[in-house]
């Protein structure tokens, strides 16, 4: 295998771990997680095998959208620490073999950002054109709002100047006017600044939203191809830091996502989350039928060589099911979030994986084994490695943003502050720290944490998964996904049983005579018949990863 490629295009088989500093670990005991706390816990992440940290926003903010509302792109939220702390964090992470990326939030600022404060003082203020305004009353845009529980239009009247400003998200998040060269200059400077401090790239928030404004002149006529802007951003990033990445949030059908990767081997985003495969995976889990996921995987278009899908099961937002049909979404709701208090915005669930899967360890492990075996780069959201649950009493998406559970001590070991001073309430009940915490699981060889660690390390040792060509294997069991990934003459076969019934899966593999299948997640070797036929037994909700060992091959496993 040409292994050197895997360190060159490092994002193609990284293990990404997303966390919010304020809920991770509180080093100074004020109730808010901080950068020094995360730095203290870097070894925990290194032990898990994480190779890339994704930091949720840590910039100064009035915190009306959990930091996705920024008042200074060059600053650090003083509750979390200082620029010095950021540099120490990045240095320490790098020493432990981890790259660090962070959210880049350029669709909008907070309405408390000094630019917007100035812009709204008069129509001829120099900052006016940093944002997008209209003077005539807007049409009905209620079908375009992202948060229908809070907004009914993407335009908000600004009383003082009598004009409306654009906000795709909350009204307190005015959209930046990226068509304005001065705004573009600020964005280049922001990117350059954080790269200079040591970041390895960005998770780019809300990409289609900010691109939709790029090519518009004030009369909303398209004057420029928005993708030219994304191409320029990529080129700028590459000039400043050769192997930094852009990981974009683009929740669109696969075919539409393609143009965000770009041409010429991929000249726009390096990576995008695969929202389609994620949503279809839940439909498959709900139906106990591999079909929907197979459809998503086989219809995934080929992407440029240097690009990659980021696969995931959960993130900090609702588990969005917006790309399913109404009936499909209703099926997933019925299976995993039947009560209204579990649902949000009519399109998603405010739950984590273990609670949705009724705490069944076989199903939870199968789901994560599936995640790590899919072609792409797996992305974990903090606490997933422990099987943390959610706090349904918390408003909306805050349900899954509770403090990290480190131990069974006070506040789950997150902070020494009194509980009423914590940034968020620690989960209580069956998923609380008494039952779910890192310290206990790290010591227990049979814990979910150790299972997850095995998945991480095995994924890293199987470049076929990040780099290989996918074949969904023909076999007669509808509730089983059998797929293989081949790269550089090496093949990994993975099987996942979506149902509770044990099953034997007959496969016919295209392999040379005298090959065998070597289990990667447990002990065992299975001979493959002369015509490539092999029967693979799976337990109920079972999973197996198997590498094809060709006769006489010199491999460790
Ligand atoms: C997407 C982020 O994931 C979400 O948390 C945020 O509310 C919106 N963008 C607006 O920034």
TrEMBL record:
Protein name listed in UniProt: Trehalose synthase
Species for this entry: Georgenia thermotolerans
InterPro entries associated with the record: GH, GH13_cat_dom, Glyco_hydro_b, O16G_dom_2, SupH-like_C
One of the GO BP terms on file: carbohydrate metabolic process
Pfam families found in the cross-reference section: Alpha-amylase, SupH-like_C
Origin superkingdom: Bacteria
Location of the Glycosyl hydrolase family 13 catalytic domain: 18-443
């Amino acid at each position: 295998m040409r292994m050197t490629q895997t360190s060159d295009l490092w994002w193609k088989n990284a293990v990404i771990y997303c966390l919010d500093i304020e809920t991770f670990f509180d080093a100074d005991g004020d109730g808010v997680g901080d950068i020094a706390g995360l730095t203290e816990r870097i070894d925990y992440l290194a032990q898990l095998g994480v190779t890339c940290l994704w930091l949720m926003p840590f910039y100064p903010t009035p915190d009306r959208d959990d930091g996705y509302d920024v008042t200074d792109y060059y600053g650090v939220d003083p509750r979390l620490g200082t620029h010095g702390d950021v540099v120490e964090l990045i240095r320490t992470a790098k020493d432990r073999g981890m790259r660090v990326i962070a959210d880049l939030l350029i669709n909008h600022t907070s309405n408390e950002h000094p630019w917007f404060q100035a812009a709204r003082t008069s129509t001829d203020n120099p900052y006016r054109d940093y944002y997008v305004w209209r003077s005539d009353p807007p049409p009905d845009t209620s079908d375009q709002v992202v948060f229908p529980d809070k907004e009914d239009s993407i335009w908000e009247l600004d009383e003082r100047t009598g004009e409306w400003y654009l906000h795709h998200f909350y009204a307190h998040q005015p959209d930046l006017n990226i068509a304005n060269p001065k705004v573009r200059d600020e964005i280049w400077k922001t990117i350059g600044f954080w790269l200079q401090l040591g970041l390895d790239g960005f998770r780019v928030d809300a990409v289609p939203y900010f691109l939709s404004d790029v090519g518009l002149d004030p009369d909303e006529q398209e004057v420029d191809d928005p993708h030219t802007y994304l191409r320029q951003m990529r080129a700028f990033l590459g000039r400043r830091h050769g192997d930094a990445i852009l990981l974009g949030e683009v929740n669109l059908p696969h075919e539409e996502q393609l143009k965000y990767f770009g041409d010429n081997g991929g000249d726009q985003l390096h990576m995008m989350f695969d929202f389609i495969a994620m949503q279809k995976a839940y439909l498959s889990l709900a139906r106990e039928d591999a079909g929907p996921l197979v459809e998503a995987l086989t219809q995934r278009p080929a992407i440029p060589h240097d690009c990659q899908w980021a696969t995931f099961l959960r993130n900090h937002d609702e588990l969005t099911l917006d790309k399913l049909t109404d009936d499909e979404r209703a099926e997933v709701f019925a299976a995993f979030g039947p009560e209204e208090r579990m649902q949000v915005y009519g399109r998603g669930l405010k739950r984590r994986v273990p609670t949705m899967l009724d705490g069944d360890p076989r199903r939870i492990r199968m789901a994560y084994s599936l995640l790590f075996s899919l072609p792409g780069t797996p992305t974990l959201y903090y606490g997933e490695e422990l099987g943390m649950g959610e706090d349904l009493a918390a408003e909306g998406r805050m349900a899954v943003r509770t403090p990290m559970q480190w131990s069974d001590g006070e506040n789950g070991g997150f902070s020494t502050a009194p509980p009423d001073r914590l940034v968020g309430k620690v989960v209580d009940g069956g998923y609380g720290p008494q039952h779910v915490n890192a310290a206990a699981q790290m010591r227990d060889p049979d814990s979910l944490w150790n299972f997850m660690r095995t998945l991480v390390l095995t994924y890293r040792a199987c470049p076929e998964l990040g780099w290989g060509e996918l074949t969904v294997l023909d076999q007669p069991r509808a509730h089983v996904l059998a797929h293989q990934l081949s790269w550089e003459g090496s093949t990994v076969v993975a099987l996942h049983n979506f149902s509770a019934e044990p099953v034997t899966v007959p496969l016919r593999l295209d392999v040379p005579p005298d090959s065998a299948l070597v289990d990667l997640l447990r002990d065992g070797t299975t001979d493959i018949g002369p015509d490539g036929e092999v029967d693979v037994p799976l337990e109920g909700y079972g999973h197996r990863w198997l590498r094809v060992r060709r006769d006489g091959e010199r491999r460790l496993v």
